[in-house]
Amino acid sequence: MNNVLRILLAIFLEGTTPISIAVSALWLIGLYRILEKSGIKGWWAFVPFARYYQLSRCANREQEGRGLTVAIFLMTVLNVFTIAINWTVEAEASVSGLDLLLTVLIFTLLIVIFMYNFRIYSGLIEVYGLKKRWIVLCLFDETKFIPMLIWGFSKNYQPGWQVQDLKVEMARLASRGSAAVMDQGLTVNLEERTVTEFFQKKVLLRDIHMAIPQGHMVLLLGGSGAGKTTFLNAVNGYEMAKAEVLLNGTNMYKHYKKMQYEVGFVPQTEMMRGKDTVLNTLLDAAKLRLPKEVSAEQRKQRVHEVMEIFGLLPVKNNLVEKLSGGQKKRLSISMEFISNPSLFILDEPDSGLDGVMARELFEQLRKIADTGKIVIVITHTPDRVIDLFDDVIVLAKDSARTGRLAYYGSIEDARKFFGRDRMEQIVKSVNRVEEGGDGLADEFVMKYAKEVA
């Protein structure tokens, strides 16, 4: 029973000695008040593991909170395992190799936990507007309860903002209305795309409204984590959001099976068998991408047309593994273009290509758009081919780290809106400061929302 009690104490109070239990209890009491001051239910302080994530929300360090939660969980598992081993195995029969492994794992986790704690408590100190020297007390188990009790119970210490206030502020930034439905073109009215993550609903995307006419080639910009791929998956129906997406007047979500032939999506990763020929690769793609009622002869004819469009006829009998980088990219695009889609989406099609080859590829995409198709492209080197695009979509992470629409419109108007000449400068302007950006995402999200209201 003694060991069972030790295991329970290790899980709920993260201590097994009277002193460590007392210190942990005082820290929890302080955490209870800190959470309440930040607009979070105080009872989260008494939920093992989850309490660290909630503390990180108070410090505006959610990403670090997720890492710390996992690290604390693993450390607790190791502590429980160690107690169980000591319980069931005689001391003289213990395996030295196992002891060494546990020691290494615990030491590694201690370093990770220390680093995450430093980031989170530094954020909390910033939120409370305190001097940085408070961090010394926060990082040690024996003293971390002191600042928590002082900040939690003293009226002289108040957070600069509350978690709930941040939600209200982000709701205020929401764009008004929705895009008018187009009979010919792509209409996107996305309210939100959410997932459940770490004990709460997380909003990945919110308030994205736009109407893209036929024949337009559109650049999709945004920093890492801004939601570009999530947005494209919502548009093509692969990951449905709370949204209405219509292509040429037909609802993508309600008629998904029918509309899947109208959308071509080329992922960044090429999915082709190296030992197949170009011809066989496209014939296989035709079987998958074309409706069942299409005859074998019609499939062959379509494959021939696509190879001609993308310049693959001279290498139709070559093995995929023998193709150049540019040829592989064209083949990857050809596989999706087999169905002659009305909407063509490409995720970094120029990845790994030099300037000349990338230019040729984008010129081919421009020709496709000119036939009346809608082409949406993600690329990390947009400025070398920007003259080929009609419009640009800019997604940005707001203060709540939700993907928002910071701009949609023509390339020239985008330059005026952001006050930057190059697309890469636009991305930098909306990126967070810690990611090397200017941290102006909220400013431009609000500015665009006002313009389209």
How many discrete domains?
2
Alpha-carbon distance between the two ends? 65 Å
Q: Which radius of gyration do the C-alpha atoms yield? A: 28 Å
Strand order of the largest sheet: 6-7-8-3-9-10
Percentage of β-strand residues: 15-25%
Uncertain segments of ≥5 residues (pLDDT<50)? none
Quick one: biggest sheet? 6 strands, mixed
Global mean pLDDT:
84
Overall CATH architecture of the largest domain = 3-Layer(aba) Sandwich
In short:
By secondary structure, the protein is an alpha/beta fold. It has 17 helices and ten strands. The protein has two domains: 2-160, no CATH class; 169-452, P-loop containing nucleotide triphosphate hydrolases (Rossmann fold, 3-Layer(aba) Sandwich).
Verbal overview:
This protein is 48% helix and 15% strand. It has 453 residues and is of the alpha/beta class. It has 2 domains: 2-160, no CATH class; 169-452, P-loop containing nucleotide triphosphate hydrolases (Rossmann fold). A 6-stranded mixed beta sheet has the order 6-7-8-3-9-10, with helices on both faces. α11 (278-289) packs across α12 and α11 (278-289) packs parallel to α13 (325-337). It is elongated, with a radius of gyration of 28 Å. The protein starts with a helix and ends with a helix. 36% of the residues are buried.
